[in-house]
Amino acid sequence: MSKPGRRRFLQSLGAAAASLAVAPLAGALPGASAGARRRNVILIVSDEHQAAACGCYGSPVRRVDGLSPTPHIDALAASGVRFDSMYCPSPLCAPSRAAYMTGAYPHTTTALHHKMQTREAGLSRFPGVREGIPGMGEYFRRAGYKTAAIGKVHVHGEQVAGWDLGFDERALRFYTEAPGMHYADLKDGDVNDRYRERGRYDAPKYRSVDPLKFAAAPAGLTVKENGLNQHFQETLVEREEEMFDHLVTERSVDFIERKTAAREPFFIHVGLEKPHRPWTVHQKFLDRFNPAEMPLPATIAEWTTKGIFPFAQHWCHTTLDGDEARNSIAAYHACASQVDDCVGRIVERCRELGILDDTVIIYTSDHGESLYEHGLIEKHTMLEQAVRVPFVIRAPWTLPQGTACDAPASLVDLIPTLCDLTQSPASPALEGVSLVPLIAGRSDPERLVFSEFYQAGSVTRRDEFLPVRMGLNRRYKYVYTHAAADQLYERGTDDETRLRNLAFDPANEATVSHLKLCTLHDWELDEYPMLDASVRVEAGGVRLEWEIAAPLARYDVYRGESIDPRRATRVAAGLADCAWTDADARAGSGAPLRYWVLAHHHLDRPFVDHRGNARFGDQAILSSLYPRTLPVTPRIDVERREGFAAKVAYRPLLGCAFGGMAWIHIGMPPRPDADGARLSGPVTVLSPRAVAADSFVFSAELRTPLSAPGANAGAKLIFGYATMHRHYAVGLRRDGVLELRKRTTEKPGELLAEKRIDGATAGDWHRVEIRFARGKIEVVFDGEPAFAAVDTTPHLGGRIGWDVPLRVEDFDVRGVSFR
What we know:
Blueprint: H1 6-21, E1 40-46, H2 71-78, E2 81-83, E3 86-87, H3 93-100, H4 106-109, H5 136-141, E4 146-151, E5 169-171, H6 190-196, H7 206-209, H8 244-261, E6 266-271, H9 283-286, H10 303-306, H11 322-353, E7 359-365, H12 384-387, E8 391-394, E9 403-405, E10 409-410, H13 414-422, H14 436-439, E11 449-453, E12 468-472, E13 476-481, E14 487-490, H15 509-520, E15 533-538, E16 541-546, E17 554-560, E18 569-575, E19 579-582, E20 593-600, E21 636-638, E22 645-648, E23 655-658, E24 661-667, E25 671-672, E26 676-679, E27 683-686, E28 695-703, E29 716-723, E30 726-732, E31 737-743, E32 750-756, E33 766-773, E34 776-781, E35 784-790, E36 799-804, E37 811-818
Parallel strand pairs: 1-6, 1-7, 2-9, 3-10, 4-5, 4-6
Antiparallel strand pairs: 2-8, 7-8, 11-12, 12-13, 13-14, 15-16, 15-22, 16-19, 17-18, 17-20, 20-21, 23-24, 24-27, 25-26, 26-37, 27-36, 28-33, 28-37, 29-30, 29-36, 30-31, 31-32, 33-34, 34-35
Helix pairs in contact: 2-11, 8-11
């Protein structure tokens, strides 16, 4: 594994950035001989393309003309290398894209969610990819390449006038807020709204949008009712040349032509958007597929009788079946066929320009699509259809042609691979590896690749942003779901197809435990810190003590001399206490010892779905408790000398300290001063751990200079914080009204109490005090009781802190007190 920790990653990148900054912009590349030929790079990334939907990956689907659904991608594979075990860093667009755009897994980038703190990408630099991590384009721009990113990128942190990810030219963003370089700039947003079926095109009847084009649509059918294109309708976009992927392709070809004419080496990221929903496209693509010939997954309806797959999002299960499902599947393939045409257009233009054999060309996708397997749509799971992606690479001067590689690989391998193929400088701390040795059969046989997911909406815990992580090697896929059952599937078998979870078999307990350790090791999450621990070397051995993970948890202890947990041996299993002495390890000479303590939560609840079905029967798959720590300690390094003692604790990645307390932040970094701190939005500042007591008093002096518009735009003191969707907030509005809100969804929240404070302005210093006692909330303002409220379903535990919205530039905090 030897995955560098995030701090080592950033430290190494600092040095790498310095070396990149002085790399020559012309002439020989660092590490290359003088006069070495510059190789161009074209990276084509689609959205939500299932690997098994490509002809070169064995798709059974055929077009009406008998061709594969993806002849151009197939041709690229025939002249390059196809990766059969390529996995996305996250089965969700934004975190997956931030990961491959930086060469680091989502937890390292800190860009974990589709919406960071409920905000779209592009609105601010933070929250998003952590400062100091270079974007993909920076590696090549500083190595002398002309760089461009045309089309969808969707990376939190990119801004029109800010961080550009290292790309000289940018255009046609999608999802990301990017005025002046967004698809929505076309025709005042009308084309974007038609394409995305939003705004005034969300709910109208098809025939009312265009009576001629949709004359054959079912009478009364609305756009919203056709969410999966089960009625096989065209896109609302009027002209094919206005489709997003068409525009992206033509703009990309223009860049390629210009740089070729100028004899300038180039790197371009081509961000296509299909086959992401909506699965609507123009008729010529729909006409390539006959819905009646579409194969349906054998598992499409099994959940209705066997039970919901509990390790998925609740909205991903669908009852669509039969002809409507065939229509939908045909529409998906029609969208993918448009993408395939775009790939063909780019490859053919390179051939015409005479640069094809001097250009690295890669086709891949940010994640997959379930496409009705197990009755699921979308991604959001660690099942193969969602996390395995197509990946084809062509570089004929050095890579074989028409071959396949089955070594586990990840999209975080993109930057190291492209740096290798172009002889461009790269950081040794990138979390991926070059794929070139893998193609030559020189891969690490024990390598694990990971995928991470953090969205709310799980079948079993809808309100939690549930941390999920997959660790996959050549033999097994292991999946950790927080406070839920482990999953283990043997690759190359039908275990996963049948959802036969090998983790339920006691014979696999040791395998599950070790893979769990390797998957959780170095998984650094500020909102789910690792367990604290201490160690001392005594005459009787090495004494370990650690923080309780949860009541009734059991603990395993691993020991080794390497920092790699794959080399560690389990020396204790199933411990009930939070202390243990390793009598076999005593003071003496030798390399330092490394320990890890791994916890297993007590599972006491089976899962029964809304139809009364339980896919796993009486098997307990959930914990009644939901701890907010990861069930593993950081690595514990021990010197072999008597009297040695040390404590290990999780150190927040986005940490700070002010007011005599430690904090974490999600967003703009706080600026501590002698009395407290100045916060600039957007940022959420939180205590590192949840409040253990059901009763507490939290207070601080606050001041906001009202730099944001709107009555409710001020900063807020927050408590009972479980997630960005679940907490309490107290704030003084611009109109002098003090209000208390309870948030339970993405929406602003329920108003629990409010009071106008005569003469109070948010621009002056005011002390706000919260007195909380198991749902009774009292708010004191400048020493005087303001109001009280009783919440019969209170948010217990949770963190305390502040939330500062976008455009509040200066929010001052001092005199912080908590008891």
